[in-house]
Task: structure prediction
Amino acid sequence: MFGLNRNDTLLLIFVAIITFAAPILMNPFPTESSLAQFNAGYPDLMQRFVIFGIFAIGFNILFGLTGYLSFGHAAFLGAGSYACVWMFKLFGYNVLPGIILSVIVAGILSVAIGYISLRRSGIYFSILTLAFAQMSFALAYSVLGQDMFGLQGGLTNGETGLQVYTSDPQIFHSEAAPNLPHLFGLPMRETWVWEYGAWSFQFNAGFYLCAIIMLVVFYMSIRIFRSPFGMMLRAIKTNQNRLNYTGVNTRPYALAAFVISGMYAGLAGGLLSAMDPLAGAERMQWTASGEVVLMTILGGAGTLIGPVLGAGLIKYFENIFSKINDAILEGWFAFLPETIGDAVVWVLHFFVGKGWHLTLGLMFMIVVIFLPGGLVGGLVQGAKRLFGGRRRKNAPPPSASPTSQAAE
Amino acid sequence: MAILQVRNVSKRFGGLQALNDVNLSVEAGTVHAIIGPNGAGKSTLLNCFVGRLIPDTGTVMFDGKSLLGIKPHQINQIGVSRVFQTPEIFGDLSLLENVMIPTFANRDGAFKVNWWKRADRESDVQEHAEAVLQEIGLYEKRHEIADAMSRGDKRRLEMAMCLSQDPKLLLLDEPTAGMSRADTNATIDLLKRLSETRGLTKVIIEHDMHVVFSLANYISVLAQGTVIAENTPELIKGDPRVKEAYLGTEAE
Result:
C-alpha cells in the first residue's frame, strides 16, 4: 500500500494509530489520582512530541543515512520559527502560509550552510555547522534584533523574541477570523474535552494538524529510505571514497540530504510558531542542536521510527520528570520507615525536578554503551533473539549494522 | 588501437622524483601488466589515471579524452573502473546493494535525486546486479552483509561492482596482495575467465610474478620512476635490465 512494502505499510499504520489515539494513550491515569502528573496528554506537550518528532525525522535523513553529524540544525528550526511569525505579522493568523514560508526559508539557509560545511567531513563538518548555528544565533539575538530599515526591533526583535502586535499590518486579517493562529478559521487552541468517568481526554486542533503533517513527512522519509537516492546516501556513510570511484558525485547527494533535513527542521520551527506565535533566539542555540542529536541517537540513528521515539522520550522527561519535587517523592515513599524514606528521597531528589538532565544523561549513557543501535536497535535485536528460530537461513546475522535492516 | 596513452608523465613529491618521463600505451582488449620493485612508482602512476593525482608534466589520454584535471567520478563515468589494493566495498550494505549502486551510477549518471522510486522495484537494475553476482559466483550470498565476507569474497565482490558497469578499462591495483596461494590461484582463474568471456581491457599493477606471467599479454617494467623495458612476457623474462632492476631476487 502507498508504494511501500508490507512491513513499512504496517509501521506507518501503527504510527498513525498511536499518533491519533495519543490524547487517550498519553492520559492513562485518572485526573484526580496521585499519578496524574505522569499524564502527558495535554495539548501543549503532545504538540511538542510531534513537532520535535518531525525535527528528529529530518535530522535522521542526514545523520542516520549519510553519517554526517550536524551540530547546527537548530539554526533551521529558529529560521523557520521567525519566518512563520513574520507571515502572521504581515498577512494574518492563518498558519498555512507561515508553515510554507518556514520550509522555504530553512531550505535556502541550508543550501548556503550545507554548501560550505560539506567541503569537510567528520569532526570538521560538525564544527562548521556548529559555528554557523552559533553565528545565526548571534545574528538573531543581537545584530538583526536592533532597529533597522525603519523596523522597530529589526527582523528578530532581539532577546524579547518576535511576536505579533496589534499595530502589525496583517493585511488579510478580517474581523470574522480568530485573533490567534488558525487554519481557515479553526483556531489552533481549539480543544474538545471528553470526560469519561474519572478521566479527562483533550483533543486539540493544533495537535491534530501537527500529527497529520508528521505522518505525511514520516511517509516521505520512508520513501527516501527505500529509494535509490537513499541507497546512495547509505553508501556515503559506509564508504564515500568507493562511491566516488564508482562514478557517483557524492557532494550533491550529501547536500541534497542536508537541505531536506534542513527543510524538515524549518517545518518543525514553523509549527512551533503556529502553535504559539512567539519566536525567540534561544531556539537557535547550540543546546537545541544538541537535543536533536540526543533524540536521534537515543531512539536509534538510521532506523525509521527511532528518532520519533527519542524525541518523545526526551520531551516527556523534560516536561514530566522536571515537575516532580521532594514533596511528591515523600508522598510516594511515605510507606517506608522515616529514616529510610528520607534517605531514598534524598538520593532521588537529585534525579528529578531540576535534576532531570541527570536522569536523561544516565539513560543516554546506558543506551549508547549497551544498545549501540539505540532503543529501536535494541528492540530489534531482542526480538531476533526471541524469535531467532523463525528467521530465514540466509537472513543477515544479528550483528549486522542497523542501517541495512529493513523493517524498523 | 591504443585505448590508454601515457605521454611524458613526470611527478615529483618534494625531493623525490616519483615518475620520470613515463610513456605507455595500452592496446584495447589486452591485459597490460605494470611491474617493478617497491617504490618504482607503480601506484603513483595508477593514481594519475583515476584523478587522484595530477602529474607535473605530460598527458594521459583515454579513448581520445584527457584524464587529467577531471574528478574520479567523471573518470568512472567515461568507462574506467578501479579495483583497490585492499577491497573498497560498502561494508554495511548487502552484496546485492553493493552491486546495484554501481549499476545505478551507470544508468542514472553521477547525480540523480530519484527519492520517490523504490530501489527494490527497479527490476532492471536488480536483475543486472543479480546476473553479475551469478557470473562471479556470489549469487547465493546476495542478501548477506558485505563486511561479513571473507577477504577473497570481498575482492570478488569488488570485481563484480566494477564489472556491473561494463567498463572499457579495468584498473587492478595488486589484486592478489596479501592473499593465500589458493585465493591467488582462484583470482587468477577468475580474471582469466573474465578475459575470455568479456574481452575487457585491463591494466594490472602487480608484485607477484606468478600472477603477472599467468595473465598479462604485455608487460611494462617500471624502476625508479621510469619505464626500463616493455615487451611480451616471454621476452621480458629474459631481459637482463629487468633482472638487474629486481637485483635477481624476484625475477623468475
Notes: The first strand of chain A starts at residue 162 and ends at 163.
